[in-house]
Amino acid sequence: MKQSLKKLAAGAALVLGAFTAQAAEPIRIGSVLSVTGPAAFLGDPELKTLQLYVDDLNKKGGVIGRPLQLVHYDDGSDAGKANGFTKRLIDDDKVDILIGGTTTGATMSAVPLVEKAGIPFISLAGAVVIVEPVKKFVFKTPHTDRMAAEKVFEDMKKRGISKVALLSETSGFGGSGKKETELVAGKYGVTLVANETYGPKDTDMSPQLTKIKNTAGVQAVFVFGLGQGPAIVTKNYKQLGITLPLYQSHGVASDEFLKLAGPAAEGVRLPSPAQLIPEKLPANDPQKAVVTSYANAYKAAWKTDVSTFGGYAYDGLMLAVDAIKRAGSTDKTKVRDALEATKGFVATSGTFNMSPTDHMGLDLSAFRMLEVKNGDWSLAQ
Predict the structure, then answer these.
(1) Most buried residue, 92, 116, 134, 190, by CB count within 10 Å?
(2) Are the CB atoms for 257 and 308 separated by under 8 Å?
(3) Which of 39, 82, 31 lies closest to 317 in space, CA to CA?
(4) How many alpha carbons lie under 13 Å from residue 8 in its C-beta half-sphere?
(5) How far apart, in whole angstroms, are the C-alpha atoms of residue 354 and residue 111?
(6) How confident is the model at residue 38, as a pLDDT?
(7) How far is it, in rounded angstroms, from Cα 36 to Cα 299?
(8) How far is CA 271 from CA 63, 117, 124, 367, in A?
(9) Domains of the chain
């Protein structure tokens, strides 16, 4: 009898807790993502991830006794629209925190607004300019373009490659990637013997690749872009019969790249978070449980493959939730301070250790060097 009463009391407490959370003022999570347009294969899994885990957290009673409310807009991969939607989220929707900015361009268009409003903003974009120099209210989850270049050059150095051709996209991400690649090349003894660009909407990069093919001394090609462009480059590469090692950036760390590039992707190497290879991580890897749980939940909910881009959104939301819990409120300055004090937070992108001088909190060990083998990702040897 006593046992039954205890169970009833526990059940009632759970229901009451959930009811209280639903009755309380919601915590408003604002998000501007590129769900359509050229960056859709980044933005779509980001939105799906936020929707999945906001629902999941609400089923568990919310955060600090309050439900989460996701308010999101699609910028269509247009940085100008991202600026307008960010303004709306701040002024009209009165959100407590922002998670989004699929692309570097969209993120940077939002930065002045969030800094002026004093609202914590966790970006899901790659360029180092987002967090360097440090901006008081701006954080990010993806590894930087500089880190990607360093990880690639580290691998090239091991393979005796020192003369490289760079092919980068003229987008915010590609432009920053080009700049950072040029800056760190010398540190690894790499000389850029060719340096070409392509537009984010270009459909054939054969002219640039032909120039690279005809450049004397090239030992490998490094492509810095996102969306469909790098897949087109990979196909053109195969069509032109170029057999040099081909490297991509983390801007294509998704199964979507494998689908778009097809058999031409065989042998491609790139730096990636652990999210693409949960089943291939050793049992004692600290990230294994997190990436496996996320992959399983995402696949079950959406019946589609997971991507690192969805992982960036998962990390952004969980970092926000963790900071709100530690702050004990949604006071914007307190949440900002809690984000900056994040230490040892294991997520899909790595283990985050933030500080007043580092609003990303990841080091080079958070990247894994992958290679496409038999149409799938594998840890590069």
Answers:
(1) 190
(2) no
(3) 31
(4) 5
(5) 19
(6) 85
(7) 21
(8) 34, 35, 17, 6
(9) 2-143+289-362 (3.40.50.2300), 145-272 (3.40.50.2300)
Whole-angstrom CA distances from 174 to 5, 44, 325 are 62, 20, 36
The residue with tokens 């003894």 is 189
Provide the β-strand partners of residue 32. Answer: 73
Q: Which residues pair with 221 in a beta bridge?
A: 165, 246
Look at the block and give the residue holding tokens 């399983």.
296
State whether residue 40 is helix, strand or coil.
Answer: helix
Residue 53: which of 335, 294, 358 has the closest Cα? Answer: 294
End-to-end, the C-alpha distance of the chain in Å comes to 62
pLDDT in tens, 247-294: 999 999 888 899 999 999 999 999 999 999 999 999 999 999 999 999
Q: Amino acid letter at 174?
A: G
Residues 362 and 144: their CA atoms lie apart, in Å, by 9
The number of beta carbons lying within 10 Å of the beta carbon of residue 51 is: 16
H helices of the chain, in order, are 2-23, 40-59, 79-91, 104-117, 145-158, 172-184, 206-213, 229-239, 255-261, 288-302, 308-327, 332-340
Which one, of 254, 240, 252, lies nearest residue 210 by Cα? 240
Paired tokens of 43:
């933005």
Full-model pTM? 0.86
Report DSSP state, residue 281: S
By residue count, the chain amounts to: 381
Side-chain-side CA neighbours of 78 within 13 Å: the count stands at: 9
Distance CA 356, CA 16 (A): 40
Per-residue burial over 196-213, b if 16 or more Cβ lie within 10 Å, else e, is bbbebebeebeebbeebb
How confident is the model at residue 23, as a pLDDT?
63
CB 230 within 8 A of CB 198: no
Q: What is the pLDDT of residues 79-92, one digit of tens each?
A: 999 999 999 999 99
d(CA 82, CA 71): 14
